[in-house]
Amino acid sequence: MSNTQAGSNGASGAPPVPLRFEVTLLAVSDVDRAKAFYERLGWRLDADFPLGEHDRIIQFTPPGAPASIQFGSGLTDMAPGSAEGLYLIVEDIVAARDDLMARGAEVSEIWHGRGLGKEGMEPGPDPERASYGSFASFADPDGNRYLMQEIKTRLPGRVGLGDSEALAALLHETSIRHGTFEAAAPAHDWWDWYAAYMDARERGLSEDEAADAAGRYMAEVKQVSAER
């Protein structure tokens, strides 16, 4: 193995460069029809402008979402309606379904169990309304299909700023972990360690890995090291 190759887990030891997924490209057959559909849903229109003399690009963002969709003319060779499994996360799947139907979307009945695939799906919401367990789907006029999933409480390290309960739980976890570092480190600004730890958890690291990452950040960037 050369010194440029990664270890067996694919990691080089350094934190990965942030790669923020922000846009999904859809193929549609009628650009204006698709635009009217997403406008009826109440999605935010971010852009609608020509590309050269003949082509066009449109971007919409779902309410509360950090990512967007784009479609238009002259953008892709994909077949119209070929996208599927486009996840939309909702806190109340019944309310979300009712709202979409009121706006003209044809939404499936709610089911629970598996979200994708052909098996393991039972009618109705999850009996306990457990997070990650209830689903419904709908499509745009071309057949690009969205999958709604109900999440009330996210798994640790998967927290959005709009999820107050999960964010509070992560802050509580962070405060406990910081206590160990604080007891062994000189005076420092607690928010620096918090930010590094919470960023690591958001990137999917375990509690121990996130604590190590925060410790490295404090030592390398803030010149604050805990005694071992």
Summarize the structure.
The chain contains five helices and nine strands. It has helices spanning 31-41, 93-102, 164-184, 190-202, 207-220, and strands at residues 23-25, 44-51, 55-61, 68-73, 86-90, 111-113, 121-123, 134-139, 145-150. A hairpin with a 5-residue loop joins strand 8 and strand 9 (145-150).
Commentary on this structure:
- This protein has 228 residues and is an alpha+beta fold.
- The protein has two domains: 23-74 and 81-150, 2,3-Dihydroxybiphenyl 1,2-Dioxygenase, domain 1; 164-220.
- 30% of the residues lie in helices and 21% in strands.
- The chain is built from five helices and nine strands, in the order βαββββαββββααα.
- The chain has helices at 31-41, 93-102, 164-184, 190-202, 207-220; strands at 23-25, 44-51, 55-61, 68-73, 86-90, 111-113, 121-123, 134-139, 145-150.
- The strands form two sheets. Strands 5-9-8-6-7 form a five-stranded mixed sheet. It has a four-stranded mixed sheet with strand order 1-4-3-2, covered by helices on one side.
- The radius of gyration is 22 Å and the shape is globular.
- The two termini are 33 Å apart.
- Residues 1-8 have low confidence and may be disordered.
